[in-house]
């Protein structure tokens, strides 16, 4: 890294802590900030502090919320007998945008990753069990990502939830609608074949 001033080097180092941001990207961000209008920079700084102080994790499902309990958990128009388990709040946003789900959520705030030291204790799994014990849940949808960590988490949850008298389902994965098979990667095709359904 070039010999910038101590303040610039410190800012680059801090910005590089963001997920997906390395030293080079952090360096570009700092140069952008230095060349940008000062008022804009102040507005962004104030927004960062405001969001940090006013946005929380919902005390029920762990989704992002500006209130103690998020709007989804508070809603009387949602199906409170169905819980969809996701890894992160951004997954809630994705499912809500689809318009195909009207139940409630449980956000784990991560996925099992033994190699990175993330076990069940680091996730909101104990909170999920408490909800199953205290709420009238009839179905649990496991909607973790279709990655190695996501699949590991799904298998763990499947075993964990077996003793509960609830229907356990896993979101389907496979060929996107409107796609040609020749353009689909091998892993997606294998997943689609494994998850095939019988035609009535």
What are its keywords?
200 residues, alpha/beta, Helicase, Ruva Protein, domain 3, Dna Topoisomerase Vi A Subunit, Chain: A, domain 2, 2 domains, 4-stranded parallel beta sheet, 6 strands
Short description:
The protein is built from 8 helices and 6 strands, in the order H-H-H-E-E-H-E-H-E-H-E-H-E-H. With 200 residues, it is an alpha/beta fold. Helix 1 crosses helix 2.
Structure description:
The structure is a single chain. By secondary structure, the protein is α/β, with parallel strands linked by helices. The chain has helices at 6-15, 23-35, 38-54, 71-74, 89-98, 125-134, 148-161, 186-194; strands at residues 56-57, 64-65, 79-86, 103-107, 139-142, 167-170. A hairpin with a 6-residue loop joins strand 1 (56-57) and strand 2. Helix content is 44%, strand content 12%. The model has no long low-confidence stretch (mean pLDDT 90). The strands form two sheets. Strands 4-3-5-6 form a four-stranded parallel sheet.
